């Protein structure tokens, strides 16, 4: 059974405050312990309010490195780019925001380049903040031909082509692998809505046999996982 704790909130505001507070705590702990912190933040819409609150936290941002958990193969200034939002929000605070891709390479080469960039930073990650889609994908670990590679590759990042391409962002991507995510000291999952809750509950129950990528991913987690949810 996957060791996951659910934290439920009545409103999106309470959810955002709690997630921002948790992220701040984990970053502060890493800064206290080591003098720097290396974290991966999800793309998508859900984390926006919590990341806006986190950006107000008094942290030694100059010692924090942020990477996206995954990104779409688009230029960094494209509005579909996950790193763009992170850079706009956290670069002005002095944080180092590391893109996984500039969208200028074919998918396999983009994966290798992302992996090489991650080889150059402190590892393992202190914290991975994940979202999840209603199809049970997380980061860009999607159903499709690349799923098994994302779950088994020893690399930190790989290039993937979701099949089908998600309608809201129909791009090939680069993603942290299961190995990179499960190596992190702390994992937080941030979702909203009844449908995602049902998908995640089933994924956690079915674990390695899950039809959902997130169930397969978390099946081998050894750290406790915090799930933050509101309707
Ligand atoms: O770039 C991405 O697509 C993501 O990082 C992805 O894994 C995201 O977290 C989920 O798709 C949920 O997205 P929403 O929060 O927008 O529903």
Automatic annotation (TrEMBL):
UniProt record, GO biological process: carbohydrate metabolic process; pentose-phosphate shunt
Keywords: Hydrolase
InterPro entries: 6-phosphogluconolactonase_DevB, 6PGL, Glc/Gal-6P_isomerase, NagB/RpiA_transferase-like
Pathway: Carbohydrate degradation; pentose phosphate pathway; D-ribulose 5-phosphate from D-glucose 6-phosphate (oxidative stage): step 2/3
Residues of the Glucosamine/galactosamine-6-phosphate isomerase domain: 11-219
Record carries keyword DNA repair: no
Entry-linked Gene3D superfamilies: 3.40.50.1360
Enzyme class: hydrolase
Top-level taxon in the UniProt lineage: Bacteria
Single GO term (MF): 6-phosphogluconolactonase activity
Catalytic activity: 6-phospho-D-glucono-1,5-lactone + H2O = 6-phospho-D-gluconate + H(+)
EC assignment: 3.1.1.31
UniProt keyword Hydrolase, yes or no: yes
Role played: Hydrolysis of 6-phosphogluconolactone to 6-phosphogluconate.
Entry similarity comment: Belongs to the glucosamine/galactosamine-6-phosphate isomerase family. 6-phosphogluconolactonase subfamily.
NCBIfam families, alphabetized: pgl
Protein name listed in UniProt: 6-phosphogluconolactonase
